[in-house]
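$ ./design --mode recover --in tokens.txt
reading tokens...
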């Protein structure tokens, strides 16, 4: 895809939105220690997930292994899910976004929760919590799945990988870390009480995402494994630019070909510096990550999906394994499965609009001016030079091509229900 040109008019307002982005609220107030299989690890403190400038009043924020690295490279630090994270670097948000689409960018995603699940009953354990068919995963194959509650709502989205090393590797969202941990920990106790074999182990690894069309050329120079044999949603443990014991997973949150590299924390900076020696690679932050994922039609937990949203309403039915639908043996199945076969009152849709940028919580109206839904995410698309958004509308108004209006600054603006992704994705699959 040719590299798009910058949309300077939308840059300032997009960054302002980034700083205000809400991503949901973690579990109960207070601190919750990460204790996996009796091994104490880093404490989880619950924070309301907002982006606020990092200042002297926020020393309590958690820091990734690359915190000092970000500062030294001009990272503008903000609060996100209880962590101090770079929202952007010296390049503007728009420049970073377009560099990712045309070349490749390096993101620090070490704030994500990484967990290993061990034991003979690990697959059964995981399937007691998520909607996916974990048993069908081949060695080193992963899948996007969902933790659901008994009412059919989405507790969190996560990636589960069946490694060749006798454990499941689970990556879930930073903003949900406390409640995800509590959910898994409580289920472990339940399984052990029933005499079943399962254990959790927390990981303090760093996690680096290298995303963009030139990712393979950059990374192949530093690994002996043939990356052409590593398709989307598979992973392998390898040495990366001299750093041993890295798990490289072909996935990401941008819609581009990319990998996420789980790296020992003490060597995360070493690996980041090695990757940046290639001129194709630039550092990128939360602002670009958000606009990239929205162009790719990907949900942000707390905005586009939450515990009041079912997978069917969110158009995420594909995450529910066929065997699991038949067995109806996952949390909320009694509500979710009938929705698959029947109807729901609302659906997640894409929106393209003209005029002022569309933001979260803006009302969606029909031709008569009646409210039929609400925007959950929105921004000016740097690649399309149009405003893109996603939200929920009454199911009868969810057909692609349906003209609607969005209420921006108390004025009705023309919009249209659109297919997602807005920008074509480039995931690597074997032919």
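writing sequence...
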């Amino acid at each position: 895809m040719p590299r798009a040109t910058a949309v300077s008019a939308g840059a300032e307002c997009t960054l302002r939105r980034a700083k205000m982005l809400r991503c949901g609220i973690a579990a109960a107030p207070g601190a919750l220690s990460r204790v996996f299989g009796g091994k104490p690890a880093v404490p989880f403190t619950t924070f309301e997930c907002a982006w606020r400038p990092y200042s002297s009043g926020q020393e309590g924020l958690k820091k990734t292994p690359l915190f000092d690295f970000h500062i030294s490279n001009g990272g503008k630090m903000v609060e996100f899910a209880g962590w101090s994270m770079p929202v952007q670097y010296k390049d503007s948000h728009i420049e970073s976004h377009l560099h990712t689409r045309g070349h490749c960018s390096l993101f620090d995603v070490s704030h994500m929760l990484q967990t290993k699940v061990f034991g003979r009953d690990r697959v059964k354990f995981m399937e007691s919590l998520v909607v996916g068919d974990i048993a069908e995963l081949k060695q080193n194959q992963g899948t996007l799945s969902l933790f659901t509650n008994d009412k059919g709502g989405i507790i969190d989205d996560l990636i589960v990988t069946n490694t060749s090393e006798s454990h499941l590797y689970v990556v879930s969202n930073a903003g949900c870390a406390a409640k995800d941990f509590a959910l898994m920990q409580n289920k472990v106790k339940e399984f052990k009480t029933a005499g079943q074999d399962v254990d959790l182990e927390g990981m303090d690894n760093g996690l680096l995402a290298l995303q963009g069309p030139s990712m393979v050329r950059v990374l192949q120079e530093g690994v002996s494994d043939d990356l052409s044999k590593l398709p989307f949603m598979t992973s392998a443990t390898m040495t990366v630019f001299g750093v041993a014991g890295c798990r490289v997973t072909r996935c990401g949150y941008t819609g581009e070909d990319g990998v996420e590299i789980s790296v020992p924390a003490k060597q995360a900076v070493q690996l980041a510096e090695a990757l940046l020696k290639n001129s194709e690679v630039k550092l990128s932050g939360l602002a670009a990550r958000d606009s990239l994922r929205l162009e790719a039609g990907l949900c942000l937990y707390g905005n586009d999906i939450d515990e009041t949203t079912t997978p069917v309403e969110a158009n995420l039915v594909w995450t529910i394994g066929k065997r699991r639908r038949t067995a109806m043996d996952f949390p909320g199945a009694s509500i979710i499965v009938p929705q698959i076969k029947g109807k729901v009152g609302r659906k997640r849709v894409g929106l393209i609009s003209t005029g002022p940028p569309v933001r979260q919580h803006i009302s969606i109206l029909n031709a008569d001016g009646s409210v039929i839904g609400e925007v959950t995410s929105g921004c000016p698309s740097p690649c399309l030079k149009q405003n893109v958004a996603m939200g929920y509308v009454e199911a009868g108004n969810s057909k692609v091509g349906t003209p609607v209006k969005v209420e921006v600054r108390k004025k009705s603006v023309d919009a249209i229900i659109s297919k997602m992704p807005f920008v074509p994705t480039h995931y690597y699959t074997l032919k």
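exit 0
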